[in-house]
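User: Predict the complex.
Assistant: Input components as received:
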Amino acid sequence: MPSKQRKPTLAVWKFASCDGCQLSLLDCEDELLQVAGAVQIANFLEASSAVQPGPYDLSLVEGSITTPHDAERIQAIRKSSRFLVTIGACATAGGIQALRNFADVEEFTRIVYAKPEYIKTLKHSTPISEHVKVDFELRGCPINKGQLLEVISAFLHKRRPNIPQHSVCLECKARGTVCVMVAQGTPCLGPVTQAGCGAICPAYQRGCYGCFGPQENPNTVALSAWWTLLGLDEAAQQRAFRTYNAGAKAFSKEAERHG
Amino acid sequence: MVNPISYTPGQDPMQPRPFRVVRAIRETADVVTLELEAQSGPPLAFQPGQFTMLYVFGVGEVPISISGDPHKPARLVQTIRRVGLVTEALCKLGRGDVVGVRGPFGSHWPLEQARGGDVVIVAGGIGLPPLRPAIYHILHQRQDYGRVYLLYGARTPADLLFPEELKRWQHTLAHAPGASPVRVTVDRAEGGWDGAVGVVTSLIPVLPIDPLRTTALMVGPEVMMRFTISELRKRGIPEENLYLSMERNMKCAVGFCGHCQYGPHFICKDGPVLAFPRVRDWITRKEV
Amino acid sequence: MGETPKPQQTKTIRVGNLARVEGEGALYVRVKGSQVEEVRLNIFEPPRFFEAFLRGRSFAEVPDITARICGICPVAYQMSSCQALEAALGVQVEGPLKALRRLLYCGEWIESHALHIYFLHLPDFLGYPDAVRLAQDQPERIQQALALKKTGNELMALLGGREIHPINVKVGGFYRVPRKAELLDLRDKLERAREIALQTVHFVGGLDFPDFAPDYTFVSLRQEGEYPILGGRLVSSRGLDIAVAEFEQHFREEHVPHSNALHATLEGRPYLVGPLARYNLNFDQLPTAVQAAAREAGLGPVCRNPFQSIVVRAVETLYACEEALRLIAEYEEPDAPSLAITPRAGEGAGCSEAPRGILYHRYRIDEQGLITEARIVPPTSQNQKMIEEDLRQFVAANLELPKPELTLRCEQTIRNYDPCISCATHFLRLEIEQAP
Amino acid sequence: MQKGPFVLERSGLLQLLQALKAKGYLTLGPTVREGAIVYDQLSRLEDLPIGYTDHQEGGTYRLRRRGDEALFGYNVGPHSWKRFLHPPILRLFRARKINGGFEFEHEAEALPNYAFIGVRACELLAIRVQDQVFLGGAYQDPHYKARRERVFIVAVNCTQAGNTCFCASVQSGPKAQAGFDLALTEVLEGDRHYFVGEVGSERGAEVLGEIPHRAALPSEVAQAEAKVAQATRQMGRSLATEGLKEMLYQNLEHPRWEQVAARCLSCGNCTQVCPTCFCTSVEDHTDLSGVAERTRRWDSCFTADFSYLHGGSVRVSTKARYRQWLTHKLATWQDQFGMLGCVGCGRCITWCPVGIDLTEEVAAMRGAHV
Ligand SMILES: Cc1cc2nc3c(=O)[nH]c(=O)nc-3n(C[C@H](O)[C@H](O)[C@H](O)COP(=O)(O)OP(=O)(O)OC[C@H]3O[C@@H](n4cnc5c(N)ncnc54)[C@H](O)[C@@H]3O)c2cc1C
Ligand code: SF4
Ligand code: SF4
Ligand code: SF4
């Protein structure tokens, strides 16, 4: 990277989330200093108290929109970002907190808070793309740090990130894992889930639980028909589609079928 | 014509050779022609209709037809329309920049068989550059061919490629004075255009040709080629004399990646230039 | 800039967005004359309702779901939920499976502590906005910190499948257990990490600390024979000694309208959890080598200065490396990766030592194994009241400081706790506008 | 050199492994892992799935105990040898920028010499099919070539058929015909346990020469042949190959494609487990420091990217993707390479997570057509 040029500025933002996706950046131990050399970290509260004003060349946005205040905040962030990438299931699909979308938020509030009258929140947890234009969505709960680096270096080199949208099964097979659904009858969401994690669940002898959200062409109906043969009841099927990407359309639609 | 260099075993056909941009010509708002020279090693000899894989460092690699003169292989000439990331990066290159080149790949226009007869060349949009080497070759051996027509359709007058050459070809391609071999049409007339407006296929019914001794070469969007074929068939040109250049996704260009399959054909090695009978059963089908 | 407060002058300290903490929070302090009138650690991290949507989920899904409360300490959530659910289901994980859990947890301690020490806390002491800028002057130090942190992550990735939100933790054990050889592959790295941790102890021991030593009530787990990570009894520096299941009889959370935080109290008083508490209540359980390192760094068996928590974290990191090496050396592959579990109705509580302190979970399940009630008390919410107390005391004692420095010190005071706001908010009260 | 059939005792197999290792081969073969028989390193006979067999159905695979001590009493599992000859992920080059241009970094690839133990007849043909793809045309893939040239193949004839295989109907097995260095048929008869073998190459003869063996008796040869014949009779599935290509070409719009598309997950497993499927994607990356890298990885015609042209995929529907796959295997492959793209191993049937069976699809289309 030529050092004379102004380095592109990077900002990291947080909405309703667990912090894990931001942490993925700090978890890039081997590359962190290289990232810091290639971009100027201009706003990353979790990591730095030096905050520079926008506009920013690249904004990474973590978390979903769950409050009216956040709904406004994201507009301002979009305005000050040249390129906006959402990171993680919260930001791309509403996250686990989108489970409220299928329930009564007020009841939820009563369960959790002693004095629910103090709690004001939106009825739905929504992905960033429902509020502003998003330039690229990086999936995962949490995101894969290799993919995060790929997105950052693609941005720096003005190329398309190599982020496949096909099923987890392709990664599973590349890894040489034995299919847990075929060999053990374990229900697996891999065939309808987007790759990116490295197919870790089947490699650890369990079914994929869908944290990268639906693949590009998910046939959830056919998969769930097979699960029924494997003995999974309706309620369990519904729960399987209602986790970290419950708000993603293909999954929420499928979950509804098992209501 | 020089024979293509074949790949020497032991060398990886997936590894590009660095070429330097010696000239970048902005043809239209979204089309650039690059003239390239090998940084080392022999120049890249090719046959009209062949293509290369152009690699922009770190960005990606795409198939691009060769648009230069096969008789002047010292300079590799390629014309690119900016549609996505790699083509955008290619269009931004300037003199002195380096690109990777692999090739030349694929089949070529049947210029030998076409000798002695009429030739109809039909180009739509960015389809003209892959046909230009054929025109150059015909011009080089003009006496070998009968009547030669170039039917060329573009979106707007501003999108017309190589306008100077089109004018020149009007004379140089002519088999007789006033023959008007170059016939251009646009979808939308703009900026004082007084030429033809409409689809390129509308130019076919009136062409003075000897159908049984005519060879047709065409490049353009698949729909355009389908209609062109049907018009040419109506004129009575035998289907084995119709040639088209096909496009499919391509990752390797040497038949390993499988992406460019089109029915039984690999566009990278059986094509891109294919005689119509070979695609007859496929071209009318969806999602092949 | 360097103004000193005049009598009766009102001064406010406002930090709109706290940096280098996990999650989103703000600080508000109002001082009138020499009187600290209001201290508010304002948390605007939105609520996420975990306890609510856990209802109706299968017990088997809980460790995966609760991990999502916090990306910084997912293992802690998984471990506390597993222990609570196992108590409810009447099974107990012992032997190599338990050892593997402890090992996985060591990974999280190493990773999380290294992150806090070098990336969140140290820049305060050395006057840098962040570790990246610190790295420009002291590249080696940060590279070592990264190597240390990475070793923690590798341990988690091997045992958990990945560093954040591990996928291999299961009620009853694991989905897949590592082969001994896989663990042995990590030995060299852990030995290197131990060296770095030891250097870290020495280095942070030599930092400048303000004199400040409030009389805390410390609370941690304690179990004979080992430094607390998983399970044990709950003890305090004021003589509390109870089973985890009795937690809710002694610890209360109040939803206070005038404050933004839900205040946890022990017998009505604020208390402190986390590294300082663990250290003070369990110094005797540390291996001698680790005790010696602590002493060399200037720590006695008791340390009450929250600014020195950075040293205690370093000591605990050293311990976690030692412990990991011990666990690996003693590991024997179990016959099965997990205990067989038949769902049954029940209730159970579990508690483990997250890097930031005790994390309490309680669940009630029905006969099909579905959750009917869930309760989660994370460390940061327990420390909430204590942080505000500290701020109040610290500001009162340091009113003469110029405002920017006082502000910085206040922020540092908060960072002493390594507060994890993401964790806290699943039950904190928020100040949020009316929903449309 | 051993001319006719030979006999190797059970213990001779260990000696064979040791001889191959001594010659510097990395011995790979079937072993039990994660509930299936996969291909991995073999160092001892105990690494083999002794006494195991596999029960296979569409979408289902289960290991079972056989009740004897057979070393090769099962059929093919989820892995195929293509993982070694045509690895799932391969770096093709690295390049870095230098004064305006770029230069390639050449690193010598340290390739082991593989010895494949237990290659089935269908798999031998599958290797030949891939040879045709990577070595048979105008261009040769040097990566495949380097691996392929060094490989030592010990074939094992199937003495029982799997429930999803159909090698007999595509003439690829169950007996290995060519392409091996040594071929063995396992015989368990009363308390005798031995292999009847055949030499397929000079290299094979040389290795055999280093281990104890003897010429086979006609009765032993007959025993072995009977076992193989039994496999043919047991074959769980079949595929009528006559006129197959034409049948498919005539049925490109058959309603059956829609029906199978409704069940197909477009997950791509069938293409990954298939020992002949060769498609790859080529990806150009750069890392943060600007070093460029080209990698090649297994791809699948079931992805949207596979047929992407500027503006969108050519094959948008699952129907078009499944049709592409099946017609490629069974029809267009014949035009492209003069052979079938399917060797009848049945992997795509077993390892399709929802049990889609190409023989059934073909039969359905034939039924409606013929
Ligand atoms: C044989 C052949 C000759 C060609 N000749 C020319 C030419 O002379 N001039 C010209 O401008 N264009 C030509 N094209 C089209 C050109 O290859 C595409 O426009 C280009 O690949 C688009 O790449 P991109 O990254 O800019 O577009 P994006 O839309 O960003 O595409 C992403 C990727 O998809 C693939 N891809 C997309 N479109 C095509 C396509 N049409 N063909 C093959 N792969 C594609 C490429 O791998 C590309 O990098 C030719 C295509 C083929 C197959
Ligand atoms: S285990 Fe899951 S992800 Fe892997 S191949 Fe089977 S279905 Fe796909
Ligand atoms: S198509 Fe199926 S049966 Fe045929 S070779 Fe491939 S995996 Fe085996
Ligand atoms: S046929 Fe089966 S394995 Fe192949 S893509 Fe469809 S569902 Fe997946």
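Residues 171 and 178 of chain B are 8 Å apart (CA to CA).
Let me know if you want any component modeled separately.
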